[in-house]
Amino acid sequence: MEPPVASIRSIALRMALGYAAFGVLWILGSDRLASSLFRDPATLAAAQSWKGLFFVFLSAALIFVMGTLFVRALARSERRYRALFDDSPEALLIYDMDSLTIVAANTSAGRLLGRDASALADRRLVEFMTQPTAQAMDRELPRLRDLAHHSVSWQLRHQDGRTLDVSVHGQTHPEHGHRLCQSLLIDITARLRAETELLRTLDELASTNERMRELGHALSHDLQEPLRQVASFVQLLERRYADSLDAEATQFIGYAVEGVERLKGLIADVENFTRQGVVQEQWVEVGGVVNAVLDDLSAAITAANARVVVAPMPKIRVDPKRLAVVFHILLNNAVKFRRAEIPCEITVEARSDEHNWWFSVQDNGIGIPPEFHASVFSLFHRLHTRDRFPGNGTGLALARKLVESWSGRIWVETSPQGGATVTFTLPANNI
User: Fold this and answer.
1) Which residues lie across from 91 on neighbouring strands?
2) pLDDT value for 385
3) For the segment 212-263, what is each residue's pLDDT rounded down to a tens digit?
């Protein structure tokens, strides 16, 4: 590995200028000195001859000293650049782009291939390539020779037989009639393996989501009809034989109809949970979304005599339908799980930090015990009987699913008023 040409030229220029300055000073100074000391022409001529010989000896000594300094400077430069090459933690090698012969390789390159670095020199690069990479190299080499910088991918063979995926960043330069390429080799085998595993996992996840959609479709269409038949025939039985049934039988029929209706609602909730609509992100005034949800819940809010305070809301880029579903679930829960002995008060707020928007719905209702703060987001999880609070336990699970589809988080805390505060985030890249 040679030092830069500019460095060599700089040293040579300093040597030439030093020698020129010495010559000019010697000639001017020695001629004046000789003229002042010797008046006789013969003596002056002899002095001029001795002066020339002395100049030769001084020139030789000066050239020796300057040459020694030049060689030492070259040696220092060589050691410096050799250290940068050999001791680099990155795998580096230099190869001839005409013959594909490796000119030099550092220790890291040898370690990458499981070989001693000195054993790589003078060997052809294709010896360490897989056959597809060698064939691709033959095709691409004419194009790469014309590029000052290039980046390619190789598959190399390790000493133990393993195949390595390597990212190669090369820089070409001419030297003594050859075109050499200095290349940085980065092992990306683990990264490609991780990316492949990630793609496989995403494929499996997509397949799972598809099966969930199929399940939701089956529940919605294939099971609804039998349920309607059961409900219809039970109600027909009640009408036809009403006079023959006692109060207990009538009660049993009511239980059956109620169970069918509850199962139909449960199936509808599962379908909503498994449905994956097309995401249509757009700039949305969150305040408008919240107000639309409050309009939908106006009957329930009026019946509960609830007071809802909505703080200033931002304008963000998001799917408004999905955002409306999340707020509908949280506000509906805040109204539903209220305390009868005090007026229902609900506050909707928004704040931001460097990375997220934080939205919260706070109430003064019956609250959620701390030991259930995580489990309430599970599908079909209920804390109360249906006699007290109707529902199937799918609302918060659906809210969590939608929030996590934005790469956000959702959690519940006990509010200062003793109720619950549900908070969810939207990442800043959605803002």
Assistant:
1) 185
2) 42
3) 666 666 556 555 667 677 777 777 777 777 777 777 777 777 767 766 665 5
Q: Are 362 and 289 in contact (CB under 8 A)?
A: no
What is the residue-wise DSSP string for 159-191?
A: TTS-EEEEEEEEEEEEETTEEEEEEEEEE-HHH
What single letter denotes the amino acid at residue 261? E
Residue 88 DSSP code: -
Phi/psi of residue 285, nearest 5 degrees: -80, 110
- Distance between CA atoms of 102 and 117, rounded to whole angstroms? 11
Instruction: Return the biggest CA–CA distance within the chain.
Output: 164
Residue 233 belongs to domain spanning: 207-274
Residues 82 and 151 in one domain: no
To 10 degrees, what angle do helices 320-336 and 395-405 make? 150
Contact at 8 Å (CB) between 316 and 359? no
* Residue 301 near residue 294 (C-beta atoms within 8 A): yes
Total domains in the fold of the chain: 4
Same domain, 150 and 78: no
Are 77 and 85 in contact by the 8 Å Cβ rule? The answer is: no
Region label for 391, one of left (φ > 0), alpha (ψ between -120 and 50) or beta (otherwise): left
In a shared domain, residues 424 and 305: yes
Query: Which residue among 28, 53, 86 closes a domain?
Result: 86
Contact status, residue 204 vs residue 183, Cβ threshold 8 Å:
no
State whether 238 and 307 are in the same domain: no
Token pair belonging to 9: 């030229």
Quote the CA–CA distance of 334 and 392 in Å, as a whole number: 16
Residue 200 resides in a domain: no
